[in-house]
Every structure is written in C-alpha cells, then in structure tokens.
Amino acid sequence: MLEVKNIGFTVENENGGGSLEIIEDVSFTLEDGKFLVITGPNGGGKSTLARLIMGIEKPTKGEILYNGTDITNLSITERAKLGIGYAFQQPPRFKGLTVRKLLSLAHGSDLPENECCSYLTRVGLCSMDYLNREVDTSLSGGEVKRIEIATLMARNLGLAIYDEPEAGIDLWSFSMLVQSFRDIAAERNESVMIISHQERIMQLADDILVIADGKIRSFGTKEEILPTLLGEFDSKCSLRGDGNA
Amino acid sequence: MLNITDKNLLDRISDFSSIPVGASYNIRKNGQGVERSTNEKVLITNKTDKPGIDITVLPETKGEKIYIPVIITEEGVSDKVYNDFYIGENADVTIIAGCGIHNSGCNESRHEGIHRFFIGKNARVVYIEKHYGEGEGTGEKILNPETAVYMEENSVCEMESVQIKGVDSTKRNTVAKLGKNAKFIVTERLMTHGKQIADSDMTIELNGEGASAQIISRSVAKDESKQVFYPKAVGNAPCSAHVQCDSIIMDNAGIRSIPEIAANHAEAAIIHEAAIGRINNEQLLKLMTFGMTPEEAEEIIIQGFLN
After folding, report:
1. Which residue among A222, B43, B73, B203 has its CA within the 20 to 30 Å range from the CA of A51?
2. Residue A96: its chain B contacts at CB < 8 A?
C-alpha cells in the first residue's frame, strides 16, 4: 500500500524572487492491486507527484509510506529495490543498448527471448524486429514509449507508475495498449498509477485523482469522479467550436 | 613456451583459448615469433628484409579465421613489426589481431604494428584488433598502430578496433584507398583513463565509382585522459561516406574531435556528425529506477556505448 501524507514540493524561483510551490499538501492512499489514474490540467503537478513517489525528486514537506515503510528519504535505487517502477513520460535513449538488453536490465537478469518477445508483443511491437535494435534515435518516439512500458512489464513490481503512456502513440496502437493495461490490472497484483488524459484509460481505473495547481481537486472512485470530469469536458468543448476550451 | 600471463593476455586480446583446430595463427611475444600454424589456404611467412610476416590468403578461401596476436610481457621492449596481408579474389576471411602488454617494471614497453592490407576483387575481410595493457609497474604501455588498406573492385573491409583499458599512450594512423564499389566500415571504440593519451588519425580516400565508407568512432574519456580524433573522408568519385564521432566525457578529461570531409567530385555525398557530451542524467535516472546504483548505471551506459 502506498500512503502519501501531506507532501509538498517547493522550488526556489530561478530569478531569485522567492519560492514556487509545485505540490501543496497532497495526501492519498493507493491500496494493493488497485488501479489509480491521475489526471488534471498540464502543469498542475502530476508528473512531479510521480517523480516524488519514485524518489527522483524529494518532497520538501510530508512523508511517503510504502507497505508501512517510510520511504521519504530513500534513494531511487532503494525504492526500485522495494518494487516501485516508473515509466518516463519522455524516456531516454541509449546508444549501444539493445531492446533485449534493456529489458534484461529491467528484469534484473538475462531475460529469455520468448519472454522479451511476449512483453514487446503486448505493447504492440513485432518482437523479432526489435529485440536486437538499439534503443537510440533510430527508434520513433512512439516505439521508445512502448519499449518503456515493456521495461515495467519485465519487472516484478509492487507499484508501477506510468507517466502519460499514451503520449506519442497512435490511436491504433493505443487500443492495444489499453488492452495491455487491462490485462496488467487483471493478472497482476501490482498497484498501478497512471498519469493520463485519456477517458479510455480512466475507464480502467478503480480510483481517480484530479490534480490542479499542485493541489488535489478531487479524489474518489471512478464512479464518483469520472461523470463529473466528463461533464466538465463536455461543457468546455463544444463540437460547434464556440466553447472556451 | 607460453605461460599463464601470456595465455591470459592472449585471451584478452584475441579469445585465444577458443582458436578452432586447424586455424592459421602466428603469435609474437617480446619481439619474436613464438608459435605459428598455417594451412593450405592461408600462408604465413617471415619477411626477409625487416621484422614481420606476410599473410597470404589464397583466392576463393571462405570462412577462415586467422589469428595474429602480439604480446609484450617484459619491460623496456620496443617492438616494431611490419605485417602485410594479401587477400585473394573472392576470399572471405576474419583476421583477429591485437596487442596485449603486461608491464610490471618501470621502463616503457612499446609496440608499433605497421599493417598493410591488399584486398583483391570481390574479397571480404573482417579485421578485429583489440589493444590492452596491464601490470602494476610504472613503465608506460605504448601502442602505435599504423594501418593501410588498399581495396580493389567490389571488396569489403570491416575493421573493428577496440582499446578498453590500460594503454598509456596510443597514436593510431589509418589510411584506406577504395576502388570501384569497394566498401569500408571502420569502427573504433576507445576508453581512456588516468593520464592516458590517445590520438587517432584516419584518412579514407574513395577513389572508385560506387565506393562507400562508414567511419564510426565511439569513445569515453575518464579522469585526466586526453583524446584527439581526426577522421578524414575524401570523395574523388561518385561515392558516399558517413563519419560519425561520438564521445562521452567525464571527470577532468579532454576530447578533441576534428572530422574533415572533402569532395573532389560532384556526385560524392559525404556526411559527418560529431558529438561530445557527458552521460545524460535521464539515462542514469532510468537505470536507477531498475534498482541500480548511480555507479552501476554509469558502468552499464559506458559498456553499452562502447558495446
């Protein structure tokens, strides 16, 4: 179980004009095996929240507990060893590292070819074409994103965090990806936290957390939150183009 | 006779313990030829006018692997050797060279390998060269290879040189002259540390119509080490060439990369790319999210980069 308690994250303003609060007093709980979607406007603090949980950033206030252990001051490496994984919004590329090697590194030991293939297939990549390709600039943004998702599948996680997995992925592949997340949710007991703007991903959620201006705007079950969210979108986005979205 | 140190060095540079039965080889130790084996397709003979050997691969020879490692295990050895390779038409062979120095003393050990390749029509050569130095002494380990490649019509040469560890100073010089439809691919991988110095000059002349060349240099410079690259591609005919120099710089190291491209024909297409930068922080973070320490992540990135 992940417990986020009153965390805050403040950075010093670059031009010396005081400090800027990116995350302000955020608290929520993610039960084991549950599927949480975090959504909200761009710049609202979603990715920062994910990075705080992974340990890439350290909160300036509050604490984070994972399975009862206070992980607030643990490093990324230590959190990863506890079973927390993070798929980057913009995954880095690695010259010279093949897809197979990257999946093996994620797994922690050499991953058999058939297992690599099965992960790649599940993210919509034809595995034999990709296994020995390098994760470098020869891959498109969408391909790198899918490989990033596969690296999380290759790990044995208690908590998997995905930062906008759908970004850069075409609509056809997106359906497949939604199916993969559905399978992950059904087959594995890992808790999943996905940052997303996509209704079809929100439909998979047990809970939805809406973040805006660094604060929780709403948090509850999908049934409680989604209808309100969709109503809000409808009122802002008129098909006739006269809305104010 | 080869002792344990010799065999370890040989393994480091040429996977010597896995030499197939019947393969041709020539082992040079401390300036002397110590073991040789030849077969009916690959002839190895001593030069009569200077130190070194002639390796002749007969036309149509396919799939042979030829091993010509050099080791230096004594301090104060200065070994200059001239090796010429004559690759017959339609042959397809792999040559595994390399030089390992074990220097426990305080005087420098030096090897200068002057290699020339004459590659016949339609022949293909894969040339793999590894350089390695070890030993606790203060004596410098110096390797200065000079390589010239002459390629006839439709020939292919894939040259891979690797220097990963322990060589204090290296100055490499590579020249290739390509005939019609010849294809030259050279990959140089280099890591320097401590106060090491590495210098690599390369000149590729594309003289025949349809010739192509690919020059790939990947290097990592650590500590106080210094590297200089000067790859030069000259197109004298309708041809194509791609020069790519990529370096990771760390600590207080210094790298200069000076690619030069030149065209003397309107249908010569020559491209160069060069980049020097430190390890990307996002790469480190990504690998740390797999449970690696920053040091382990750095090691993986470097290994992958030098691959």
Report:
1. A222
2. 218, 303-307
Q: Which of A57, A77, A109, A149 to mutate to test the interface with B (most CBs of B within 10 A)?
A: A77
Name the DSSP class of A229. Answer: H
pTM: 0.84
A94 vs B306: CB contact, 8 Å cut-off?
A: no
Of the candidates B296, B234, B228, the residue with the CA atom closest to the CA atom of residue B256: B228
**Left (φ > 0), alpha (ψ -120 to 50) or beta: where does B135 sit?**
left
Nearest CB to A77; choose among B291, B303, B307: B291
What residues make up the domain containing B20? 4-306
From A228's Cα to the closest Cα of chain B, the distance in A is 35
CB contact set of A133 (below 8 Å; sequence gap of 6+): A98, A99, A139
> B13 φ, ψ to 5°?
-100, -20
- What ipTM was predicted for this assembly? 0.91
Cα–Cα distance for residue pair A72/A62, rounded to 1 Å: 8
Q: Identify from A71, A90, A94, A193 which residue to disrupt to test chain B contact, counting B C-beta atoms within 10 A and taking the largest count.
A: A94
Taking alpha carbons only, the member of A115, A86, A89 closest to residue A100 is A115
Please tell me the total count of domains within chain A.
Answer: 1
A239 min Cα distance to partner chain B (Å): 40
pLDDT digits (tens, 9 = 90+) for B69-95: 888 888 888 888 999 999 999 999 999
Domain membership of residue A164 (yes or no) is yes
Rounded Cα gap, residues A95 and B218, in angstroms: 10
CATH number of A221's domain = 3.40.50.300
Residue B302 touches partner A, C-beta closer than 8 Å = no
Please check whether residue A121 lies inside any domain of the structure: yes
Q: Please tell me the distance from the alpha carbon of residue A215 to that of residue A163, in angstroms, as a whole number.
A: 18
